[in-house]
């Protein structure tokens, strides 16, 4: 008897794990003694998509980067002893198509256009069925429109139109793109084309509908061409100006951006009759690095969790704490950008539901998962999540109108923060949260688990020359805070146990892990295996 668990948590889903589940289900069809299940995070997010095989009498084995059908077949072989046949090209093609469709859907949902388009041109070239090819190419054209690549979209739509001559949808899409490109003459030509193509009396309603739509497109195009403030947009994104960079350690700085672009949206969506959904949130930065291996667009997409509040965002200000990695594609690009340059930031996206502090809102009403205390187990730049959690504990910064702000998070909260001695981030905030007496925005306790500084050539330290405060002076300041302790060890299960025991006196605890993948993975395993914590009470934020 064996069980195959296919991870369906965030990172794995973004890498097509729903399709992996479907693939493995398909490959195990008819085999007895093997069950296939969806599972929560298995703690190897950086190598997604992941699967665990559990065989009776044997230890579990983790299978990572299941990015081909062949690898899924290998999992099935290990679980059942039976090697599935991959001779059927139709089955193989169907499974590969399902997988790339799932990756595309998730990326599209996150408005990550480059990621959504990755590999599509090749799939189109390899698709022999004309209708399937046209469908894929239409999908690609729509993604190009979302990404502001209108000329490319027109090229794809022309190819689709040559196959789907009588598809009204294609004419409507071409009209939309011509409107965005302000091509008035071509809109007129398209209207003539429609009148000719749908000239049969039975097509009169279609002809009239598209004709009216194209006339509206032309009017809109004339108006927008006359608007001097008009610029080409990327769907879901707004333009922000880099206004300041304040180094906070040799590796990390707070990047301050401003924007008057009304498309920037808000973390706190509201309106008449709308329920107030509290959440922590992040934004996606488009790093315009040029040609890259993440997709066909000239940018890569990276998520960041602002440390400033939703109120600041609405006023057109945002502060983002960013660590610069010498080998990081996006951050080394950002490091070279001058003050005053413009970048694209997405509208705010939900990270965790509040007060449940879970990724999945459906758990909000689950009483068994209700908590009376919160432990934030963070490392490196993962500390930014603490800032957002604290905003929801403070009547001045939580969601709500100025006359009605009741913090949704009120339970005792402890932070265990693992960091390098030369990279203690948000020290001032930690000390403020520990000693604060405003409302509920107060940390019960904070433990800094400091590791020693790695020797690094100063050329590799992006902010070496500009940081004035040395790490020791920052630590000295923190050492005087009464409910904050500094330990010179890694985070151990004993340390966690001690802090959890204090919180557990009050009831069940939610634990949020936020840091680099290796940290997240180690902490999650430690909590489950050594501290006996139920997986459902742990939220892992992959960084
Ligand atoms: C929801 C969310 C919120 C995030 N918020 C922030 C934030 O507020 N501030 C912030 O600085 N980052 C944040 N990140 C991480 C960020 O999105 C990027 O991954 C990071 O800036 C590196 O991007 P890069 O392109 O420079 O590196 P990449 O080119 O993607 O990676 C290159 C190398 O850099 C190193 N590296 C990259 N990321 C990490 C990491 N997280 N930990 C350790 N080593 C790493 C590794 O050596 C890696 O091999 C967040 C991520 C997520 C998913």
UniProtKB/TrEMBL annotation:
Q: Which UniProt keywords apply?
A: FAD, Flavoprotein, Oxidoreductase
Protein name (database record): FAD-binding FR-type domain-containing protein
Which residue range or ranges hold the FAD-binding FR-type domain? 235-355
Give the residues the record marks as binding FAD.
302, 304, 321, 323
Provide the leader sequence positions: none
Q: Name one GO molecular function term.
A: oxidoreductase activity
Requisite cofactors: FAD
Return the similarity comment: Belongs to the flavoprotein pyridine nucleotide cytochrome reductase family.
Q: Which residues form a coiled coil?
A: none
Would the keyword DNA-binding turn up in this protein's UniProt record? no
């Amino acid at each position: 008897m064996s069980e195959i668990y296919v991870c369906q948590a965030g990172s794995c889903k973004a890498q097509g794990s729903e399709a992996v589940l479907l693939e493995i289900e398909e490959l195990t069809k008819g085999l007895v003694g093997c069950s296939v299940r969806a599972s929560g995070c298995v703690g190897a997010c950086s190598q997604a998509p992941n699967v665990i095989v559990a065989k009776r009498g044997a230890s579990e084995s983790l299978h990572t980067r299941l990015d081909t059908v062949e690898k899924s077949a290998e999992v099935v072989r290990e679980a059942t002893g039976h090697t599935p046949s991959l001779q059927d090209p139709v089955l193989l093609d169907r499974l590969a198509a399902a997988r790339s469709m799932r990756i595309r859907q998730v990326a599209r949902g996150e408005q990550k256009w480059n990621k959504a388009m990755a590999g599509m041109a090749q799939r189109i070239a390899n698709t022999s069925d004309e209708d399937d090819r046209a469908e894929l190419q239409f999908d690609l054209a729509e993604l190009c429109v979302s990404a502001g690549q209108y000329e490319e979209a027109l090229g794809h739509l022309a190819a689709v139109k040559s196959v789907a001559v009588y598809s009204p949808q294609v004419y409507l899409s071409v009209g939309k793109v011509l409107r965005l490109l302000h091509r008035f003459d071509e809109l007129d030509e398209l209207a003539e084309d429609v009148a000719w193509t749908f000239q049969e009396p039975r097509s009169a309603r279609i002809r009239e509908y598209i004709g009216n739509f194209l006339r509206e497109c032309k009017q809109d195009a004339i108006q927008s061409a006359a608007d001097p403030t008009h610029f080409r947009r990327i769907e879901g994104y707004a333009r922000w100006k880099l206004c300041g960079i304040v180094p906070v350690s040799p590796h990390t700085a707070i990047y301050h951006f401003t924007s008057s672009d009304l498309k920037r949206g808000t973390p706190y969506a509201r309106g008449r009759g709308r329920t107030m959904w509290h959440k922590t949130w992040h934004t996606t930065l488009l790093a315009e690095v040029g040609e890259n291996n993440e997709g066909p667009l000239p940018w890569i997409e990276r998520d960041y969790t602002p440390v400033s509040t939703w109120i600041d965002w609405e006023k057109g200000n945002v502060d983002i704490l960013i660590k610069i990695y010498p080998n990081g594609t996006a951050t080394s690009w950002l490091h070279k950008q001058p003050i005053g340059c413009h970048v694209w930031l997405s509208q705010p996206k939900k990270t965790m539901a509040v007060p449940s502090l879970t990724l999945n809102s459906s758990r909000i009403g689950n009483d068994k998962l209700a908590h009376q205390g919160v432990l934030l187990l963070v490392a490196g730049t993962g500390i930014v999540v603490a800032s957002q959690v604290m905003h929801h504990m403070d009547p001045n910064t939580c969601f709500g109108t100025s006359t009605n702000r009741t913090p949704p998070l009120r339970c005792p909260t402890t932070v265990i923060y693992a960091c390098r001695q030369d990279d203690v981030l948000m020290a001032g905030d930690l000390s403020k949260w520990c000693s604060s007496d405003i409302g509920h925005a107060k940390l019960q306790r904070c433990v800094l688990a400091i590791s020693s500084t790695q020797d690094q050539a100063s050329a590799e330290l992006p902010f070496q020359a500009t940081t004035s405060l040395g790490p020791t002076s920052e630590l000295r300041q923190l050492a005087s805070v009464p409910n904050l302790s500094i330990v010179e060890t890694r985070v151990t299960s004993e340390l966690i146990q001690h802090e959890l025991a204090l919180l557990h006196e009050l009831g069940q605890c939610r634990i949020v892990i936020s840091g680099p993948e290796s940290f997240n993975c180690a902490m999650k395993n430690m909590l489950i295996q050594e501290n006996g914590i139920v997986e459902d009470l742990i939220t892992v934020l992959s960084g």
